[in-house]
Design brief:
The chain contains 8 helices and 5 strands. It is mainly alpha-helical. Among the domains are: about 150-200; about 260-430, no CATH class. The strands form 2 sheets. The protein has a 3-stranded antiparallel beta sheet with strand order 2-1-5. The protein is elongated.
Length: about 425
């Protein structure tokens, strides 16, 4: 019982303690709730005050905006009034300027008309002076041309007389040399015939000894070979003798044809000289005069012409897809024709370029004549002219364009390139 009483007492005390704690907790919760309510009330009041302040500020801003808009409208009105006033002033100035411009334009037209009249008058006076000067110049030029032509005719006659005298002297000397050469040639021919006869006798004796020393079979074979060789040598000698006679006859005919054609070439030269003088192509005229002087030297040299035997035809050259034969001297002459043609063409093309004349190699006198350096030995004039013009065209192109595509200039002379020479001539040595 005592134990039960203690338990009951403990339970009662515990209950009292728990009840006191609950009361204390309830009072604490009521106190905190009051505090929160007061805080919330203060926050609501603060928010209301802030909203009121914002409304006041917005009202103030609206009032300021309205005031600014009103001020801006007033300024816009004042600016519009000023702009209208300036526009009106500008229109008035524009009207005054337009009036002034019209007045100036009218004055300028009047001055232009007066100036045009003066210019036409001056131009007319200038044309009259130019016509008078041109007439005087033509008269003076005609007088100078007449004097020059008379001087040239007189000089040409004097040169012709001297040339005729020299030609007669040279013909006489050439005939004397020809007679002496004929006598010497006959003597040399007799000596060669005697020497050839002696050599044939010695050869026959040697062959006779060889035939006796060899066997019958070898002797028969040698006899056949000798017979064949003998016939071939006889044919060759006969052919060479025939060719020699024909060569001399052909060379004499070539020299005669060249001399007979000399007068025609002179007349053509004088005609071209007058044409060049009229065209005022001074450089081409100087070139043609140099070319003519060389032709005169060639003519004088050919007057002393005499026949020479330069050996058999052991070269061949190409022309138009065909081959032709000549000897050593003829091959050298054809090569010289190409080189001389290149040099003359180069100078002719250079002269046309300096005169400002168009590209035209075939119009040059050197190309038309194409007998520069010709000597009538073993080559016909037409053959020589063909290869001379082949070199001339290439030289003219280099001279007119100031270049060295087909040839070169060295040691005072022009020469065509070896590869170009081979393409043109195609020279070959025959065995």
């Amino acid at each position: 019982m005592k134990y039960l009483k203690q338990i009951g007492l403990s339970l009662a005390i515990s209950t009292l303690i728990l009840g006191a704690g609950d009361v204390a907790n309830a009072q604490g919760r009521r106190g905190r709730g009051e505090e929160r309510r007061q805080e919330n009330q203060a926050a609501r009041e603060q928010r209301q005050e802030e909203r009121q302040n914002r409304r006041n500020e917005q009202q103030s801003q609206q009032q300021q905006t309205q005031q600014q808009q009103q001020n801006s409208q007033e300024r816009q009105q004042r600016w519009e009034q000023q702009r209208q006033q300036q526009q009106q002033n500008n229109q008035e100035r524009q009207q005054r300027w337009e009036q002034q411009r019209q007045q100036q334009q009218q004055n300028s037209q009047e001055r232009q008309q007066r100036w045009e009249q003066q210019r036409q008058q001056q131009q007319q006076n200038s044309q009259e002076r130019q016509q008078r000067w041109e007439q005087q110049r033509q008269q003076q030029q005609q007088q100078r041309n007449d004097q020059q032509r008379q001087q040239q005719i007189q000089q040409s006659r004097e040169r012709e007389d001297r040339w005729q005298q020299q030609r007669q002297d040279q013909i006489r000397q050439s005939q004397e040399r020809e007679q002496r050469w004929q006598r010497d040639r006959q003597q040399q021919q007799q000596n060669r015939d005697w020497e050839s006869q002696r050599q044939r006798q010695q050869q026959q004796q040697q062959l006779e000894q060889q035939r006796r020393q060899q066997s019958d079979r070898d002797r028969n074979r040698d006899d056949r070979n000798r017979d064949w060789n003998g016939r071939r040598d006889d044919n060759r000698n006969n052919d060479n003798n025939w060719r020699q006679r024909n060569w001399r006859q052909e060379q004499e005919q070539r020299a005669q044809r060249y001399n007979q054609d000399w007068q025609r070439r002179q007349s053509v030269l004088y005609q071209r000289q007058r044409v060049l003088e009229q065209q005022r192509r001074l450089n081409q005229l100087r070139y043609q005069q140099r070319y003519y002087e060389q032709l005169r030297r060639d003519q004088l040299r050919l007057q002393q012409w005499r026949y020479n035997d330069y050996g058999p035809y052991n070269y061949r050259y190409r022309r138009g897809g065909s081959y032709y034969e000549t000897n050593r001297y003829g091959a050298e002459q054809l090569q010289r024709a190409i080189n001389d043609g290149y040099g003359e063409g180069f100078q002719a093309g250079q002269a046309d370029r300096q005169d400002g004349y168009g590209f035209n190699p075939e119009e040059a006198y050197g190309y038309q004549d194409a007998s520069y350096g010709y000597d009538a030995y073993y080559v016909d004039l037409n053959e020589y002219q063909y290869y001379f013009r082949e070199g001339f065209r290439r030289g003219y192109e280099d001279g007119y364009n100031s270049r060295s595509q087909y040839g070169r200039y060295s040691n005072g002379s022009y020469s065509i390139l070896g590869t170009i020479l081979e393409q043109i001539l195609g020279l070959q040595l025959l065995n």
